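Example protein as discussed:

>
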Amino acid sequence: MIVNSWYNGYSPKERDEKYRELKRLINIGKLKEATGPCDLCCDPDVDVEYHDEDYGKPYIWIKPALLCLCRHCHRTKLHKRFKNISNWNVYLAHIRRGGYSKDLKDIVIKKELKEFELKKIKLLKKLRTYKKDTGSEWFANLRMDLKSLTDPKARLR
């Protein structure tokens, strides 16, 4: 995979270098393949892939630098949060009421989230127990501005 975009102040070259090292370590058995649950929606029964928040050297191979995310959380929500902040915030509210990404296939839940986004309802119905401390999750204070993609100050360290 060739990385073409900046993220958290890391260049495509830096991101690609860490990705290649990740694949090498998996291939030689020093790192295992990504395993669930998803570190964003907490779904225990979903395939996950690695996501990096920190591409700095020396490489860090544990949370919160390296996370396991389901494809929907990773590609549809996390990386697209910059273009639709409202959608990201509604999704976090969904997660914090015990929602999984796969719940979004349910038309009743989709409708409820749309009404919540439009402020037609104030609270979402609880779906499952949410076991994380709201506001202290790794994703709670991510930068939302496009500048953070290339800003070296966006780096975790």
